[in-house]
Design goal:
Blueprint (H helix, E strand, L loop, with lengths): L4 H15 L7 H17 L3 H27 L11 E8 L4 E2 L3 E11 L6 E8 L8 E10 L4 E2 L2 E2 H6 L6 E13 L2 H16 L6 H12 L7 H10 L9 H18 L3 H19 L3 H18 L6 H15 L7 H23 L7 H25 L2 E2 L2 H25 L4 H26 L5 E2 L2 H28 L10 H5 L2 H7 L1
Parallel strand pairs: 4-8
Antiparallel strand pairs: 1-3, 1-5, 2-3, 3-4, 5-8, 6-7, 9-10
Helix pairs in contact: 1-3, 1-11, 2-3, 5-9, 5-14, 6-15, 7-15, 8-9, 8-10, 8-14, 9-10, 10-11, 11-12, 12-13, 13-14, 14-15
């Protein structure tokens, strides 16, 4: 990776937003200081000093912005009404997730008695029928405070990081009184279309697995099978990640090019499809990151510039952290960005290591990506969930290609369903076979002896072994680079050391 000025500045913005989680500062003083440093940076002749001072200015500015955003997220007009019961109207943000005693979903409280707070809440409804995503429902409800730490989970902290401070508990029946419109309403229409037509004629586990793969609805999968997906390292298949977003963008662009509408329209169509899909499944960290990367890639093509994957990754992180600095503490954010960064760094090295073996290029890439994701996410899954899958590489090598095919076939099924229902039913049945295979992979790998580590001692031994293996691989890689006459990692090439002027001018 060649570090450029845009990398430094966007990375500084991420650091500034992240610092707000540790300490909050006043917006006016830090913005004033950032402005003075920015003016100083413009007057410095040396490119390196100019970049360093500009980076500090950006850190300060976004530290102030992050502090302001956290103050806004921590503000609630409903906390003082906790314990009261009123007639309410809420807008359901996501399909409710069923639990043992109720079903829950994020929502926006539109009306509370005579008030119109328009504040996010955590909605709890009785088990039974569920309101669709985007529905406005009227009900009699009670405002409650979230629960504190219990059995390793702190609901109050988890909700606060999403800007939610109260729980809205239904006190009886509810009824739909409307639906939201606008761009979010379009996302709701896409969600209903995919949820219905992509699984036409299916039921039971196969339908639930396909819906989880397409829309990220892991709550539809039974608890035992869900535990197997976690143990096998295949749980990400039930969430919407960058691979699925990229698959949708590629498929729409390919269809547009096949029809012959031109590259520009294909790029616009792909961006529109990614945006609609992101709204349909929810703006989760991995979805936002992938959508930002797709948008930057299209802009790079339109501007005739080379695509910069690291810049796209950093911009995605900056967007999420600027909107909600608490995202840094979210497991989804950590897993998504750690996995992608590791793919950039580790995958090429694994592919090179497999050269000379009877392994196809595609299989080598798949092994490299699975290895990179497994290594990067293992510390996070241990810290967040106290478990590490040891079979994630073989499980992903076997199951992920089928998951990608399932997503593509589900989209084709949904597209055909309105005009040819029998054909769509046949395709859905075929896709159900893929769902059964993926579920069998999760059960098979997840139930292998020693499939996952759950004890602290075993995790420590595993971590020490990983560090030793990484050190050995690093030394071996450096030796290979030296034998090939290449500069060591972190060492500037001889031509750059001899004439630093071109590098400085390039930074400018």
């Amino acid at each position: 990776m060649t570090v450029r000025l845009p990398h430094v500045l966007v990375g500084a913005a991420c650091v500034g937003c992240a610092l707000a989680n540790g300490a909050r500062v006043g917006l006016f003083p830090v913005v004033l200081a950032a402005g003075l440093l920015g003016a100083l940076a413009l007057s410095l002749p040396d490119a390196r000093f100019r970049t360093a001072v500009a980076a500090v200015a950006v850190v300060l500015a976004f530290w102030g912005w992050g502090s302001l955003r956290l103050a806004q997220l921590d503000r609630s007009a409903l906390v003082s009404d906790v314990g009261t019961v009123e007639r309410a109207v809420v807008e359901v943000d996501e399909p409710p997730k069923p639990g043992s005693f109720d079903q829950r979903a994020r929502a926006v409280l539109l009306r509370w008695g005579t008030l119109r707070p328009h504040e996010p809440v955590y909605l709890e409804l009785p088990l039974g029928r569920s309101p669709p995503q985007g529905a406005d429902i009227a009900l009699l409800a009670e405002l409650r405070a979230p629960t504190g730490p219990s059995n390793g989970f702190d609901q109050a902290t988890w909700l606060r990081r999403q800007g939610i401070h109260v729980v809205l508990r239904a006190k009886g029946a509810w009824r739909i009184v409307g639906r939201r419109g606008g761009i979010y309403g379009l996302g709701d229409d896409v969600e209903r279309w995919l949820a219905g037509d992509s699984v036409r004629g299916l039921s039971g586990e196969r339908r639930n697995v396909i819906e989880a793969v397409v829309l990220g609805r892991s709550s539809l999968v039974g608890q035992n099978l869900l535990a197997d997906f976690r143990a096998s390292g295949l749980y990400h298949c039930l969430a919407v990640d960058g691979l699925k977003v990229a698959t949708i963008a590629w498929a729409v662009a390919a269809i547009a090019l096949l029809v012959g509408v031109g590259r520009l329209f294909a790029e616009v169509a792909a961006l529109g499809a990614v945006s609609a899909y992101a709204l349909a499944v929810g703006l989760h960290p991995s979805v936002v990151r992938a959508a930002v990367a797709a948008a930057l890639g299209s802009l790079a093509w339109l501007a005739a510039r080379q695509r910069d994957r690291w810049q796209a990754l950093l911009v995605g992180a900056a967007v999420l952290l600027a909107w909600n600095p608490y995202s840094l503490l979210d497991a989804g954010f950590q897993l998504s960005f750690a996995a992608v960064g590791s793919i950039f760094v580790v995958t090429p090295r694994v592919v090179r290591a497999l050269e000379g073996y009877p392994v196809s290029r595609r299989l080598a890439q798949l092994i490299g990506v699975s290895t990179a994701c497994g290594l990067a996410t293992a510390p996070i899954t241990w810290l967040q969930f106290r478990q590490i899958s040891l079979v994630t590489v073989p499980a992903n090598v076997v199951a992920v290609p089928v998951v990608v095919e399932m997503l593509g076939l589900a989209l084709v099924t949904a597209a055909i369903a309105p005009v040819a229902p029998p054909v769509a039913s046949a395709l859905a049945w075929l896709n159900g076979c893929g769902a059964s295979f993926v579920a069998a992979c999760a059960r098979g790998f997840g139930n292998l002896p020693g499939a996952q580590v759950t004890s602290g001692r075993a995790a420590s031994v595993l971590g020490l072994g990983a560090l030793l293996a990484a050190a050995y691989a690093w030394r071996r890689g450096e030796r290979a680079r030296a034998e090939a006459g290449l500069p060591l990692l972190g060492e500037r090439p001889a031509e750059d050391r001899a004439d630093p002027a071109p590098a400085a001018s390039a930074d400018r």
